[in-house]
Amino acid sequence: MRPTEILFPTDFSPASERAGQVARAMALESGARLHVLSVVPPVTDPAYFAEQVARTGRDLGKGLRVETALETGLASPRIVDYARAKGIDLIVLGTHGRTGFSHAILGSVAETVVRLAPCPVLTVPAGMPERRDPATSSALAAAPPARSCLVCGNASDELICEPCRTRIRAEAAGQKREAERSGRRGMPA
Q: 68, 34 in Cβ contact below 8 A?
């Protein structure tokens, strides 16, 4: 299989950065177009993320054909929908490696994408040793900060940074609405 369209969904965490490096290397090797996608919760101001997705596309895209996109909604369904709509051949997705309580609370975007994707999915674990690619910016290769968010690993003075708190709240609200809709369908009239 020689992919021509590779999707790299990102939440800008260290796990995503490593997956981006893998996606870039695979796109360079195969001559594929690299799609950089970020999905933000509906209650989030997308301006901050639009700037980040554009920067990530520029940083990873040196020597590649790159398409960037920012979508709103729950991450897993948006990633799968994007892959179907764009004819993606391979999804390269970072995993945070959560287990136990945090996995139960936050779920797993990677797990859901693997189950529902219309194409192969390569998951890149958060603990994978980092390779330095001189063609990518120092922002992608920077060492992790001394204090970081427990969810995404980005620099934060808080245990959970504001973007992650917002994302968690939005996902929980969406799951609650879906549960309420499902509960109403099962109720007698």
A: no
pTM: 0.66
State the CATH architecture for 5-142.
3-Layer(aba) Sandwich (3.40)
Tell me which residue of 173, 169, 137 sits closest to 56, measured CA to CA. 137
Beta-carbon-side half-sphere exposure of residue 13 (alpha carbons within 13 Å)? 23
Inter-axis angle of helices 109-116 and 75-86, to 10 degrees?
Answer: 40
Domain range annotation of the chain: 5-142
State both tokens at 125. Answer: 């674990």
* Pairwise pLDDT comparison (134 vs 22), residue with the higher score: 22
**Would you state the structure tokens that stand for residue 160, as one six-digit string?**
């959970």
pLDDT grade, residue 187 (50/70/90)? Answer: low
pLDDT of residue 32: 95
